[in-house]
Amino acid sequence: MLDLFDKYTPAKDCVPTVYEEDTGMFETYGQDLQTVMRIAAKQANRVWTLVDTDDGGTVWLNGYHYVNRIAYAITEEAGQPDESFVCIDGSEFDENGDLHENDLNIDDEEDKV
Known about the structure:
This protein is α+β, with helices and mostly antiparallel strands. The protein has one domain (4-111). The chain contains two helices and five strands. The protein has helices at 4-7, 30-42, and strands at residues 25-26, 47-52, 58-62, 69-74, 84-88. A five-stranded antiparallel beta sheet has the order 1-4-2-3-5.
């Protein structure tokens, strides 16, 4: 599965205040949010929003989004308007939010809980 940062470079002209600088991630409040909104107003496709999905997964969506947001990222390169990157596929989880046993990569019967 291709990750956002496999294709795009975290911005060097913006520094997050909460997350580590080399993660490229920005918080959804305070100075970080102001930075994200400043970039989004000028170059919207450089902003990415990490959102929760209805099935329990997470996805990076190109652009500034408010609903179900977890974090933001700003990249050097502009993305495509409808581009997205799945981080966690919600189908990996059962109705309780636990990983399906076959997705745990457990080889030995004695290792199963």
